[in-house]
Structure formats: C-alpha cells, structure tokens
Design goal:
It is built from 17 helices and 15 strands. The protein is α/β, with parallel strands linked by helices. It has 3 domains: 222 residues, Aldehyde Dehydrogenase, Chain A, domain 1 (3-Layer(aba) Sandwich), CATH 3.40.605; 190 residues, Aldehyde Dehydrogenase, Chain A, domain 2; 38 residues, no CATH class.
Length: 509
C-alpha cells in the first residue's frame, strides 16, 4: 500500500481547490444580479433545511456546546444572514448620485480564503459562503482540524445547491484534511484575494501578516454591568441564557459580571434561582487550576463543556441542575484565571460602588483581552448607556439583551454575522459585523461638476540679475591679495581685479 504524506496531500488539495475556484469565479463574475440571487437563495434554503443535521454533526465531532443551540446558530448563519443581504445590489451599477455626478459600480474581490473555527464550525461555514457568493466571489474553506468533517459536509451541501441553481462547480472549495501549513499557504496563495479569518489569536495574526487584505477578528472578554436601575430578574435571566448558550462558545458571550453594590444580594439570589452555583474560597482555588493549568492561558479542555462537567474536572460536587459556576473576584489580570476569557459557563463576579468604578473595571477587563469586541449593559438609564458607548473601547455596546445573541444580530438590529470586527481597538481593519458589503470593491464613475479657474503664473523674460561685486569689495580683495604676496611691489592691481571679476562671474553662473 502506498502512503502519502498528509501535509503534501493537504497542500495539493488546497492548490487544486484554489485553481478551480479561480476558474469558476471568472465565470461567476459575469452573472447577472438575478442569477447571483438565485444561487444565494438556493444555498441559504439548503443550509437552513439541514440546520439540525449539521448541528448534530458539529456537536458529535467537536464535543463542544449543545446540539440544540448549534441548530439556532445554523439558522442565524443561513436564514437570518440571507434575509439581511438578499436585497443588496452587488452586480453592475449599485448606486447613482445625479446631483454630484457619481455612479458606483460593484466589482468582486475574486477568491476568498475562509478560515473556520472549531467553536462555531457549521454556522460560520454557511455564513462565509453566503456573503462571499452574494458578492460574486468564490471561496475555499479551511476548517479547524477538529471540525473538518462537519465543515466539509456543510460546504458540500452548499455547493450542491449552488450548482443546481446554475453556479460553476468550483465556486465553493475546501480542504478536507487541513493542516497548519496548508492553511497558511492558502492565505498566502497568489490567487487568493482576501482572507476571512475566524480563530485563535495566532491564526488571526498570520492572516494579517500574509500580505493579503484580511478580515481577522479579535477575542472577546465581555464584561456585563448590571446597573442599579436594571430589572434584575429579567437581566439575570438574559445573562444566564446567553452565557449558557452553546456552553459559552460564542466569543461575544459575557465573561465577567459587574454589579452595583446596592443590588448585589438581589443579583446573587436571581443567579441562584437560574441554576448558578457560587464557589467557596477553596472551590475557587480548585477551579482556577482547571481554568488555567498553565499560568496565564486558558485550558482548551473546558471550552464548550457544561458547568457540571467542568466542576467534575475540579473535583467539585454541584447539584444536577447547575448551569453556571460563579466565583467572587476582586482582581484583574492573566494571573487571575476567572478574569480572562472563558469560552465556557464560568463567571467572575465583581462588585462596584458607582458608575465611575464600573467604567474603570470594565476597561481593565477589556484590556485584558477583549478590547474592541463587545460590552453588555443592563440599565434603565439611557444617558448612562450613551456614556458607556462614548467611553468604552468596544465596537458593540449591547443594552438589555443577551450579549452572545445580540452581538451576532440575533436579538438586535445589528447585521447578522459570525465574524465580528474589533476595530483598531483590537487590531482589526473594521469594527463592523462583517457582511457582504465588506467583500466587493466599489468602482466610482465621476463626472466633472464644476470648472476651476487656474491662475496663470507669469514667467519672467530672463533670470533676475545677480548682484555684482561692488567697487569697495574689489578694492578690499585687491588689498588682501597684495598684502599676502612676497613682493607687493610686483603686483598689478588691474590684473588682480580682472581675475576676481572672472572668478565671481563663474561662481554665479
């Protein structure tokens, strides 16, 4: 039996997919708006119809999250995304401004490299396919190795629907046996035009350093501030539902609770009613060793696991109905595990005395690893919400809504998206929820609308005369030359004057 090197196989598969995608995109670029829209609708319908099937595949393969919640993610990644982009013009003339004489024309980027994470594999795959093809691009998917089968199945379903609707066969490609080398080579491939990267910090940095235009997104370490005017009962329910959604695998899920001291006891009681277990001092120390067994880093084994499973890892016995694990915390820093991003149903609980202390604490938590991402606020004070929006270094300020679902556009008016930009706060090129408008060029046809009177500069007939050496200057030069001679009596003043004039003339010219 002949054995092939897995890295070489992965690399060749990537190259073949990019080649096919480039050829297909050249054809797809000539499609009309109706043809493009028919293809995109067919993909969305097919993906939506398989939401449950793909959710179960993702859960079985990765072991992360909750299948029923992944189904909802898939529905957002297919139907909600489609509804948000279906009326966008992406072919030919997309806008005209007769008054200013400017016409905008859409032009596709070309081939998109779609990097997909293990936390939201199937929903991210269908989302990236939809926005890429709506903009008349082709896409090659590179999934996380631990989610390759469910991602490939998602891409296959989407491709089959696209081809049935008239799209060329290579318009959606993938790497079925991804390796880090193949993924990095995909991002640097000469025929790839833009990168959509969702994943860990190292992968996002690689996308930005690839030499290609890239949309890479930063991590979230989302604080949620329950302010004293909030509806505590409803706020805690929303936060609990958000943090436990798919066992906390959405990067926009809340990571630390910040509560006003006046309502602390009420907040604690409501969390307990919603299935939260508050850790004792000793239990907290045990849990810290599980969250971060290697100092200053998150343990990947807790990501997407249930609260009861994580408690078991720490040797802590909790009630069967436990949904959340919460520990009181006063400090912020990577050496304090509860304060870092935890993609699991585990919370830090902070208490503050006033708004100013809340501002300061939230900014510290964001600076620990979530700058530019999101912040959640529960309050009835609209002016306070505006102050938070102005002061906080985040791209999304989510008010009175579950952060995990609000940030992706599920419970807010934000654009439905599985790629959330963090702006320059987090080292990203955009602070938007990335969608179709980020995946095509806008060419501009601009007519002259006014004449400018350009002043004519009068040219001089000749160069201005240069100042001549004065009589007094010549006499002084002659005196100096004669005085320096061995025999001043032999000097001829007229010859000296002539030599000086010729020298000055030559220097001026």
């Amino acid at each position: 039996m002949v054995h092939f090197d897995p890295d070489l196989q992965s690399m060749q598969e990537m190259r073949d997919a990019v080649k096919a995608a480039k050829e297909a995109q050249a054809v797809f670029a000539e499609f009309t708006q109706k043809q493009v829209d028919d293809v995109v609708k067919a993909i969305a319908d097919a993906a939506y119809s398989q939401s449950e099937h793909l959710a179960r595949l993702a859960h079985e393969e990765t072991g992360l999250g909750v299948a029923e919640h992944k189904k909802i993610k898939n529905e957002v990644g297919s139907k909600s995304v489609y509804e948000s982009i279906k009326n966008e013009k992406t072919v030919g003339i997309i806008s005209e401004d007769p008054k200013n004489g400017v016409t905008e024309v859409a032009s596709p980027f070309g081939v998109v490299a779609g990097i997909v994470p293990v936390t939201n594999p199937t929903s991210t795959t269908m989302f990236k396919i939809l926005i890429s093809l709506k903009a008349r691009n082709a896409i090659v998917i590179s999934p996380h190795p631990s989610a390759k089968n469910c991602c490939v199945e998602t891409a296959r379903i989407c491709l089959e629907a696209a081809v049935k609707a008239g799209a060329p066969k290579g318009i959606i490609g993938w790497i079925s046996k991804p390796t880090m080398d193949a993924t990095q080579s995909l991002m640097k491939h000469s025929d790839v035009n833009v990168i959509l990267a969702t994943g860990g910090g190292g992968l996002v940095r690689a996308a930005y350093s690839s030499g290609k235009p890239a949309y890479g997104v930063g991590p979230g370490n989302v604080p949620v501030y329950i302010e004293k005017t909030a509806d505590v009962k409803l706020s805690v329910k929303r936060i609990t539902d958000s943090k436990t959604f798919d066992n906390g695998t959405i990067c926009a899920s809340e990571q630390s609770v910040v509560a006003d001291r006046q309502i602390k006891e009420q907040v604690v009681k409501e969390f307990e009613k919603n299935g939260a277990y508050f850790l004792s001092g000793e239990e907290k120390r045990k849990m810290e060793a599980v969250i971060s067994p290697v100092p200053r880093t998150l343990n990947p084994k807790i990501v997407g696991k249930s609260a009861k499973v994580i408690a078991g890892m720490a040797g802590i016995s909790v009630p069967d109905n436990t949904r959340l694990l919460i520990a009181y915390e006063n400090n912020v820093g990577k050496e304090y595990p509860f304060s870092i991003e935890k993609l699991a149903p585990v919370f830090a609980f902070y208490t503050v005395n006033d708004h100013e202390e809340a501002f300061s604490l939230c900014e510290k938590l964001l600076s620990l690893g979530g700058r530019g991402h999101s912040l959640a606020l529960h309050t009835k004070d609209k002016e306070l919400a505006r102050r938070f929006a102005i002061k906080m270094p985040v791209s999304r300020l989510l008010v009175n809504t579950p952060s995990a679902l609000g940030a992706v556009g599920g419970t807010t008016g934000l654009a439905p998206s599985l790629t959330l930009g963090c702006g320059t706060f987090g080292g990203n090129i955009t602070s938007d929820n990335v969608t179709v408008k980020h995946l095509f060029n806008k060419k501009r046809l601009a007519y002259g609308t006014r004449e400018l009177d350009i002043p004519q500069v009068k040219q001089a007939d000749s160069a201005p005369a240069k100042s001549a050496v004065t009589k007094e200057e010549l006499e002084e030069i002659v005196k100096q030359v004669i005085s320096s001679m061995d025999d001043p009596k032999q000097a001829d003043p007229q010859k000296i004057i002539q030599v000086v004039k010729e020298t000055v003339s030559a220097l001026q010219n």
